[in-house]
Design brief:
The chain has 71 residues and is mainly α. It has 2 helices and 2 strands, in the order H-E-E-H. Strands 1-2 form a two-stranded antiparallel ribbon.
Length: 71
């Protein structure tokens, strides 16, 4: 299946929104969460999701939220 550049970008934007919403449910905010603009610069853009940097408190909350999902 060939996915066009615009579709890849739209999908990346949707997943960023889903991640932001899902992490918000467990009180985790990744301030740098976004579609990486550099990955869109080529003739055939292949968007990357930039999870970015976060402080220690946010990393601890994210780790705790993920720990709660383990079987």
């Amino acid at each position: 299946m060939v996915v066009r550049a615009a579709e890849r970008l739209r999908t990346a934007e949707e997943v960023v929104s889903q991640l932001r919403d899902g992490l918000g449910v467990v009180a985790v905010t990744l301030p740098s969460l976004r579609v990486d603009p550099v990955s869109l610069a080529s003739d055939t853009p292949y968007p990357l999701v930039d999870l970015g940097r976060c402080n220690l408190d946010t990393a601890l909350r994210l780790a705790a939220a993920l720990e709660g999902l383990r079987p």
